[in-house]
Amino acid sequence: MSPNNKTKTLLREASHQVIAGGSAGLVEICLMHPLDVVKTRFQLQRGTSDPNSYRSLGHCFSTIFRNEGVYGFYKGILPPILAETPKRAVKFLTFEQYKKALSFTSMSPGLALSVAGLGSGLTEALVVNPFEVVKVSLQANRDSFKEQPSTFGQARRIIQEDGFGLRGLNKGLTSTLGRHGIFNMIYFGFYFNVKDAIPASQDPRLEFLRKFAIGLTSGTISSCVNIPFDVAKSRIQGPQPVPGEIKYRSCFQSMALVYHEEGYLALYKGLVPKIMRLGPGGAVMLLVYEYVSGWLQKHW
User: Where are the alpha helices (DSSP H) in the chain?
Assistant: First the structure.
């Protein structure tokens, strides 16, 4: 193969991964964002002493709907939508590249998939963290949808007050690295290892259900393992308990503080809506990626 043809092939593969990854992320975020809002609200609560505490999942949904309207469930959706194409493109593109690079090592194929997932998650986190800071600050706002600041207004305020660094638009970066790195390590490692171990079905419907079930399990396990990092991230990026005082400063300091003040179960706040979102959401994302990627390979 000539150098020009090789370059064209690599660019074509990369464009397939970018388009398929972006499509997967967009579909997932549009379907599952209300559960992300609910998850963030639970993670921002500081125990039963919090005057705005939600009693249950149902109480949270009904309170948001009553006080903020249906659009309250879509607070902070613009940052992830703006981030989804580059975020998921980075996730799937780098996963494929890390997987390809690791194939030249002595690492076993199963372990290589997990390590490639870890690498893709860490890379993804660097891209997505500023969007997460804006999203969480918008989701924490309990005013009606019409009264809350715009996405760009909120981003401008964060930059003006705290800058671009680890106290501003990139605060909580270590927690985001931990959240995405661990999630993707398990998510990709489990999905592709189990998918290869379970025989494929010739029936398209059964094959779809097989992949969906493996993706659902993969997203659920990943969510259970990485949620302490997610709680720490929400506490660091969300409003501090006392205005002007920074209580939650770093990833492990925040975890230790939550554990000390609220008990170990507080490190799993928001787990139910997180699983409800990222269990089926993880399955949807992998399926959309595989089907769109397959279609692009056949037709483009």
Answer: 3-44, 57-68, 78-102, 109-139, 151-162, 173-197, 204-237, 251-262, 271-299
- Predicted confidence (pLDDT) per residue in 103-122, tens digit: 999 999 999 999 999 999 99
Integer CA distances (angstroms), 51 to 42, 55, 231, 260, 265, in order? 13, 11, 19, 20, 19
Burial class (CB in 10 A: 0-12, 13-18, 19+), 22: buried
Residues 6+ apart with CB under 8 A from 291: none
- Residue 49: other Cβ atoms inside 10 A: 9
**In this prediction, what percent of the chain has a pLDDT beyond 90?**
53
Of 255, 97, 286, give the one whose Cα is nearest residue 186.
Answer: 286
Read off the DSSP letter of residue 74.
G
The token pair that represents 4 in the structure block: 């020009």
Q: Residue 249: what pLDDT?
A: 93
Q: What is the DSSP string of 207-228?
A: HHHHHHHHHHHHHHHHHHHHHH
Answer yes or no: is pLDDT of 98 > 90.
Answer: yes
Q: Whole-angstrom distance between the N-terminal and C-terminal Cα of the chain?
A: 19
CA distance 224 to 272: 9
pTM (predicted TM-score): 0.81
Q: Which residue has the tokens 């929400």?
A: 234
Match 């997987």 to its residue by tokens: 99
Measure the CA–CA gap between 123 and 91, rounded to whole angstroms.
Answer: 7
**pLDDT score of 146 more than 80:** no
If we measure between CA atoms, which residue out of 53, 61, 52 comes closest to residue 273? 61
Collapse the DSSP code of 172 into the 3-class scheme (helix H, G, I; strand E, B; otherwise coil) and give the result: coil
**CA–CA–CA angle 96, 99, 103 (5° rounding):** 140
